[in-house]
Design a protein that fits this description.
Blueprint (H helix, E strand, L loop, with lengths): L22 H35 L4 H10 L2 H10 L5 H19 L8 E2 L2 E2 L7 E2 L2 E2 L2 H26 L9
Antiparallel strand pairs: 1-2, 3-4
Helix pairs in contact: 1-2, 1-3, 1-4, 1-5, 3-4
Amino acid sequence: MPPAKDANFSTLSIFPTDEYGRAEEFRENAIRLIVFDMHLAIEDLLKFFLHARIAENSVLDDDADINYVKQLNSRQAVDLAARLGVIDSELHAALVELNAVRNRAGHTWALDEPEMAPGGAKQGQFPLRWKRKRLTPTVVKDEFIPQYGRIYEGLFSAYLETLPDVPENDG
């Protein structure tokens, strides 16, 4: 069936008539993307440093070490980095928590609805939670991003220190 003559798709029955009808889904997905981006950025840097530590004493070639680190899932990489002294116990705990939030965001579609149990909805247990509270836009802005932003900044600054000096081009 062709759309209405005026092609105003918001009036079709499959679309909400309220222009903000999907605001909740948009908010959930925006938070989900923030969690994913922060997790991936930190994980990539962590694996860089993990590879560097492993390569110090490895008898295998560099490609084998790189492939080994790449195949680690996030939790394995975080745990191995702690065991090898790449990260301390405080950073380990923060990254385990970030990984748990990422897993809930990645494996649950409706992030703003209570989790279900055999007896019904779990009171106060939402998939999008962090530090025992819901990960709301305010919590993301005021707490989550500052904490993991500092972690990312620290790792990225340390990464930059590993790069060779490149002479500036005076033009």
